[in-house]
Amino acid sequence: MNLLPPRQTNGGRMVLYAFDVDQTLWLSGGPIKLADLMGLRNSGHLLGLCGNFAAVTLRMPEWHYLFSFIGPMAMTKEAFLLQVRQYVPADDYVMVGNIQGVSGESDDHGAASRAGWRFISETAFSLGAR
Fold first, then answer.
1. 100: which of 18, 58, 63, 107 fits an S-S bond (Cβ 3.0–4.6 Å)?
2. Domain coordinates in residue numbering, the chain
3. CB 37 within 8 A of CB 6
4. Which residues contact 71 (CB under 8 A, 6 or more apart)?
5. Average pLDDT of 32-60?
6. What pLDDT, in 10s, does the model give residues 90-119?
7. Is the domain defined by 13-126 classed in CATH 3.40.50.1000?
8. Which residues are bridge partners to 121 per DSSP?
9. How far apart are CA 80 and CA 85, in angstroms?
């Protein structure tokens, strides 16, 4: 995989994106493609995983060139998102994932809302929402 170093665009605004994995990313049955993620990263945004990170780290040996953090490990998604927001400065915080019972099994929309993050569904993101 050939990833370029991040470049600041969009007036220098950095958005921190946390992606769910299952039914969200291409390698786990979701609509979001690798090229979409690389485009964000190469535009100077920060990307991380907030879901089944093992599905990525075990299938993508160079995952660490694309994603800056993985989680939530032994805590809820909400608690993880709260901690990331507290300790990682950014201009905007966006959780991309599922709406429980609509597009997946996890309540990513609820976790994002409770943690004060903006939410984009995996379908809307794959259609260009940012």
1. 107
2. 13-126
3. no
4. 48, 49, 50, 53, 80, 84
5. 97
6. 999 999 999 999 998 899 999 999 999 999
7. yes
8. 97
9. 9
